[in-house]
Amino acid sequence: MGGGFGGKEMQPHGFAAIAALGAKLTGRPVRVRLNRTQDITMTGKRHPFHIAWKVGFSQEGLLQALDATLTCDGGWSIDLSEPVLGRALCHLDNSYWIPNVHAYGQIVKTNKTSNTAYRGFGGPQGVFLIEDILGRVAPQLGIDPLELRRRNFYKPGQSTPYGQLVKDADRLETIWGQLSDEAEVDARRAEIRAFNASSPHVKRALSMTPIKFGISFNFAAFNQAGALVHVYKDGSILVNHGGTEMGQGLHTKMLQVAATALGVELHQVRLAPTRTDKVPNTSATAASSGADLNGGAVKNACEQIRDRLAKVAGRMLGVDERDVRFGGGFVTALGAPVNRVSWGEVVKAAYFQRVQLFAAGYYRTEGLHWNPEIMQGSPFKYFAYGAAATEVEVDEFTGAYRVRRVDIVHDVGDSLSP
Known about the structure:
Blueprint: H1 12-26, H2 36-42, E1 49-57, E2 63-75, H3 81-90, E3 100-109, H4 123-141, H5 145-151, H6 171-182, H7 185-198, E4 202-215, E5 224-231, E6 237-241, H8 250-262, E7 269-271, H9 290-317, E8 324-327, E9 330-333, E10 336-342, H10 343-352, E11 358-364, E12 369-371, E13 376-378, E14 382-395, E15 401-411
Parallel strand pairs: 2-3, 6-7
Antiparallel strand pairs: 1-2, 4-14, 5-6, 5-11, 8-9, 9-10, 12-13, 14-15
């Protein structure tokens, strides 16, 4: 497949049309392949933003108000500029509570390549705004920039400017402290100050930056997925889902979800290529939601099958179906692990009892609501939290720079593929 993520959302249609037209006119298979120069020249990139802002702080260094106008360079067509701008507006607070916010966004048409989805989808542009503000304001307030960031972290019970409660906000403090300790930030900053004092032309600096990134599509209808799971008489399992694998490990996660839900070994599960004649109406594999949505659908399908098999296994083990447990390729009775039968035996028995061994699964993200007209609601299922400590070195004559070290801490929750 090559490439990945946002570049696949909108702009491949034009190149596919070129190939289709060529095939139609010639009656032969046609392949369109751009060289690197053509690719960089013709295809869209991350949206440049121009941002004008005013900000207010208390004497204690607490954010009081932000007034910002975000101008997004869409290029010659609209493409995905509207949702990109929408996510930028939803992330201009990053990890910080700002009690009063007035934000305005606009897209401008320019004589440039049409910009498109790019990793982060407007989030980095919004985050950059508040991080730039804090970096500029800290010296004027006489507060260490890292301390200024920490003071303004979201606290439990606080909400974003668009009205969504920030759940688990205390994790920001935990991540920040862990990163500071593991990256030896205080000691390294002292070393950097000593280096800069003795180096007239090459300077070093270390920053820490938190992140609070919303997970879900801003457009609620996209937050749904389907799956089709087959269990065969020999106990093997075939999974169909609607996500696209492009090197991010999605297929592996779906295999793990199915194996865990059915209590079998990973080698017993295989995956079919993604096809819309098996799982229709698929959402884009984007917004960091491919595993959440498709995993939920696969889990739902597997649970339907497992519930049917539990009745069969209960009769085989002489226990109530509610006391049946699946795990490690075996089916056991609660409290009596020696009383067990293999997964394959249960499947074979179910087949001869004419029990359905396939299921269509469905998942939709609950609890989402969003009014795009007034930019209010709860568009995200949850927030992903993390922080990075980055040390760089800059040559003041040439502007050449290099990244000397990066330390990253992310709260990944219960990972599907640890």
